[in-house]
Design brief:
CATH architecture of the largest domain: 3-Layer(aba) Sandwich
Organism: Haloplasma contractile SSD-17B
Distance between the termini: 28 Å
CATH topology of the largest domain: Alpha/beta knot
Order of helices and strands: EEHEEEEHEHEEHEHEHEH
Shape: elongated
Structural class: alpha/beta
GO molecular function, one term: rRNA (uridine-N3-)-methyltransferase activity
InterPro entries: Alpha/beta_knot_MTases, PUA-like_sf, RsmE, RsmE_MTase_dom, RsmE_PUA-like, tRNA_m1G_MTases_N
Radius of gyration: 20 Å
Helix content: 25-40%
Keywords: Cytoplasm, Methyltransferase, rRNA processing, S-adenosyl-L-methionine, Transferase
Main location: cytoplasm
CATH superfamily of the largest domain: SPOUT methyltransferase, trefoil knot domain
Number of helices: 7
Length: 247
Amino acid sequence: MQRYFTKFNEEDQIVELLDEDVHHIKNVMRMREGDEIIVSNQVSAFYAKIVEISEMLVRCELLYKLKNNSELPISISIAQGLPKGDKFEYVIQKTTELGVNKLIPVISERTIVKLDHKKEKKKLMRWKKIVKEAAEQSHRVSLPEINSVISLRQLIRESFEYDYKLVAYEATNEEDQRNFKKVLNKIQPGERILIFIGPEGGITPSEIKQLTDAGFLVTSLGPRILRTETAPLYVMSCISYELELEG
């Protein structure tokens, strides 16, 4: 069943959908009054019945609350060294489907991409649209947050609000290689984890020192070297398996 995100309170009887959602309901899905959809306010999701379709809005009557929750039991932030081309869009789409809560594009020493303010603003709008579409498709209850582009120094300053912080790095010793697994064994429901993944050129030794000095644990992501756009999908899949299937 098609899902849409909008603002409403649980005690509301009627909710409204606007803008692109109206176009999607009318012209793409070709729905009619009486058809049922799912609406989410990023806290809960409800079955709803369409009661009015006009040019500017769609009104729906809330029927009942969904009991199942598709969100992971922990909060996951992926900080990604901004990659070239449309790779970050791919990361956004797939990690949203896999349950990420926040995506943070980072400019680091080996980042090739250069964004001015105008380009960044346009990119953010595009990224948020991808998040919304992927969250609706994968039946998420909440929309992941897309951060504005920040420097590694800014990321470190903001990292102290997390319970666990990891940096994926191929040059790890035998002890560090298992840090990801150790964290997943310890983390509790409601806690927050931040994982930093470098861009195509990787992470420099000086950046690793900055991160570890700030409390990041170095970890590998297995015996193979992953592309920058593959690594976050590996991370999310491991977390989902450990906490949802094994747990």
